[in-house]
Amino acid sequence: KATQMESPVSPLSPVQRLHLTQAGSHNEGVPSAERDDQRLVLFASPEMESLKALILAIHDIDKFVRPGEITWDYFEDGFPNIFIKDVDGIRGKNVVLLCGMRDHHRLMSNLSVIYAIPRYLAKSFIILLPYFPTGTMERVEVEGQVATARTVTRLLSCTPLAAGGPAKVVIFDIHTLVERFFFADSVLPILVSATPLITKQLRTAHKDENVAICFPDEGAFKRFGKHFQKYKQWEIIICSKVREGNRRIITITEGEPKDKHVFIIDDLVRTGGTLIECKEALFKRGAHKVSCYCTHACFPEGMWKRISEYPADAPVPNFTVFYLTNTVCLVSDQLHNTPPFHILSVAELAADCMLRYV
Q1: Chain centroid to CA 336: how far?
Q2: I want to staple 331 with a disulfide (CB 3.0 to 4.6 A). Which of 89, 283, 297, 336 is the partner?
Q3: What integer is the mean pLDDT of 150-159?
Q4: In this predicted structure, what is the pLDDT of residue 13?
Q5: Is residue 220 within 8 Å of 267, Cβ to Cβ?
Q6: What pTM, to 2 d.p., does this model score?
Q7: For 80, phi and psi rounded to 5 degrees?
Q8: What is the mean pLDDT of the chain?
Q9: How many Cβ atoms sit within 10 Å of the Cβ of residue 290?
Q10: 115-139: per-residue pLDDT in tens?
């Protein structure tokens, strides 16, 4: 059963969660010290090591989670050469793999570990995949197109059963919720949202500003509108693309941005082109400032420079602040201290998911 989490719960509520991490079976052949350590074991693929470090740095998390270690290497012919250290230590334990697939060259390495861990008799197994990389290619509009979102869900659905049941696949802000049905019944997709990070930021850092929330298209509004409509103080603005001659331009179809600090909300950013066009349309309608939030910072080939190196003499100002999360560590790790980007960490949300869904 797939679920959509609307808001975070504190990742460290020991009284309520202790039984989840301390419940475990005794295993023959495993030293008693290892049997007694029923903490969850956290592994990470190479591109997610920085997020793993942030999770392990959370206060008191070491009471519930311990790090696991994997050597990720390659043979001379380029095929993976992987070694999971202390596999006896995961027998009968709850195990999480913090998985990154932004680097598609490592897809086989990730899948090799995903298929191996349950076979070492892990009690439960969570694949924590903050960014689902092929989410925007979920449908076929012209014969010949390949829906690669379906391909990746098929691969993940082949994960062997853990000792305690099916593996769980936790994904943050997947592009469309219908993709939960691409997974087979052999795994349990759990869809959660990182939008509480930006709502918290708006209610603290921007609490004294005249804020409005803008969605760059109807799809983004349908996907995230409910997360913001419950906060009555923020006006909702919706944009859409309309044809003007031979061009498709972004126009405002609902809401009034005049004299407001408008925050554009979307699930991911690649080239930033649509968001920049949306920003220009908002300024033309009298917006005082325009900022942005996207959960996933994809930015292929350094495309973030379109924003970080925005011309000072451009007809309209740059984004005041561009909020991103660190679901795509390969990119977010490069954007610290790079205005106007501001990274909101998903570490506590990830820790909560690990302990909640174990």
Answers
A1: 18
A2: 297
A3: 95
A4: 53
A5: yes
A6: 0.88
A7: -65, 140
A8: 89
A9: 28
A10: 999 999 999 999 999 999 887 788 8
